[in-house]
Amino acid sequence: MQQNINSFVFSSPAYDGFNGQFIAGRWVTGTEGALTLDRNPFDNAVLAEITQASLADLDAAFAAAKEAQTTWALTLPAERAAVFLRAVSILDARKEEIIGWLVRESGSTRIKAGVEWGAARAGMLEAATMPAAAQGHIIPVDRPGKEARVYKKPVGVVGVISPWNFPLHLSNRSVAPALALGNAVVLKPSNDTPVTGGLLLAKIYEEAGLPAGVLNVVVGSSGVIGDAFSRHPVPRVLTFTGSTPVGRHIAQTAGESSLLKRIGLELGGNAPLVVLDDADLEKAVGAALIGRFMHQGQICMSTNRIIVDASIYDRFVEAYTAAVKAVKYGDPNEPDTLVGPLCNDSQVRSVKASIARARESGFRECVSGPIEGRLVAPHVFADVTNTSDFARNEIFGPVAPIIRAINEAEALAFANDTEFGLSSAVFTRDEARGLAFAQRIEAGMTHINDITVHDYPHVMFGGEKNSGLGRFNGRWIIEEFTTDHLISVQR
Ligand code: NAP
Ligand code: MG
């Protein structure tokens, strides 16, 4: 089924499908002279040919954002909210078209694409509440006639760099709050998902009535525009979602900017799912299955290590093995496929390397299957050691390590023995025990008796250690994308 890339209603005369940049409210050709070939990872079909942005295009995008932001910041809260409510209507009206794009461009299964569409929609609804939620303070001070007021203001321009795994949602998770709070944005999606991570989102907001220049999308090679983006003096906040090594590099480059900027990093994870001796085994197996295999394991919160108490270890391994053997993998467009293709060839190489490491270490291969093109069958390895390279690295693929812990204390030590600290989970029938365990996990997010993958637009999201800096969603993202100005009055 070939999508119709021109099926969006034109509201801009220059719009001619997704083939270039969106700068200053115009659909323009990138001037770098190279093309991004946007391919379907399942069948390699070319979905779009996109002219790449040059350094001049990047400067034009930041200049347009800077210019448009002043007027945008002066719009009334309800006017800004209305843009997001209209965007939600567009998402509803074009649900199938958007899900189709997610399936084709990022190898999302229909299950995952539906989840992602819902997350983007929920994020837009939450953004509609933000213009009126950004509130300042009046603070009493110890001086007669003195009043301290703290005004909350947009930061100005926000730069967003987003990944390919949840492209629509993870771009929108930064873009929507930034815009709602009166900022303008320049967004650089991944070259693997230039449409769902950028141009499609821009089209939705354009149709929703967002003024020209408030959102700009640049599609280009990271080697050409990456450092210039991070180092650019215009954005006051730079928010990056992606891998830890690239996040570190971007933080360094941003530090070289002539004007200092705030930086938010949402990076890799190595989520443990801990099954204590009194856990509901069936629920733990189900959560460890979905949490590992949804979107082929390519989620920052994916369950990367399953740590099981020795007393129920053998039963867990047996039940998990049986459950994983029944997982359907293959064509992402079939409604019950859970594991579709990996997003790109470098992902395939990296997942193959993980499997090779597990085999070299001699871990017990409970579930295995073929690797054909970008399609990797689910794999399960048991008796994995927590200190092995296999367990220490983020696998980002449909490969599950199971680790035996002699007791609760060892399970906790294993869970925390990682450079990462994004999501985590613990299974126990005793809620108080679960809470006490959760409080000792070094992570930004811990779920008791549930999967490791959760993201609600009004609930805090973020990581510790090498999983990142800063917090997303709700009132936390309001703090990230606004700045406070103290103005005191002496009467
Ligand atoms: P990535 O390689 O770090 O890329 C992320 C983004 O950075 C892409 O847009 C990429 O563009 C861009 N980029 C690469 N090099 C750059 C440079 N020098 N300057 C500026 N931009 C640059 O990560 P990924 O492979 O797309 O995503 C997988 C990783 O992201 C995993 O580690 C995962 O855990 C993490 N992740 C974290 C979260 C979270 O919320 N914590 C969410 C999702 C994913 P190109 O792709 O075009 O090169
Ligand atoms: Mg692609």
Summary, kept brief:
The protein is an alpha/beta fold and 491 residues long.
Detailed description of the structure:
There is one protein chain. The chain has 491 residues and is α/β, with parallel strands linked by helices. The chain has helices at 55-73, 77-93, 95-106, 110-133, 167-180, 195-207, 222-231, 244-255, 281-293, 310-325, 345-360, 389-392, 408-416, 431-439, 474-480; strands spanning 21-23, 26-28, 35-39, 46-51, 137-140, 146-154, 157-161, 184-188, 215-217, 237-241, 262-266, 271-275, 303-309, 364-367, 371-372, 375-376, 379-382, 399-405, 420-421, 425-427, 447-448, 464-465, 468-469, 482-490. A seven-stranded mixed beta sheet has the order 14-17-18-13-12-20-21, with helices on both faces. The chain has a six-stranded mixed beta sheet with strand order 9-8-7-10-11-23, with helices on both faces. Helix 4 runs parallel beside helix 5 and helix 5 (167-180) crosses helix 6 (195-207). The longest helix has 24 residues, at 110-133. The chain is globular, with a radius of gyration of 23 Å. Mean pLDDT is 96; it is low at 1-7. NADP nicotinamide-adenine-dinucleotide phosphate is lined by residues 161-165, 170, 188-192, 222, 226-227, 229-230, 241-243, 246, 249-250, 266-269, 300, 394, 396, 422, 463, 468. NADP nicotinamide-adenine-dinucleotide phosphate (NAP) binds at residues 161-165, 170, 188-192, 222, 226-227, 229-230, 241-243, 246, 249-250, 266-269, 300, 394, 396, 422, 463, 468.
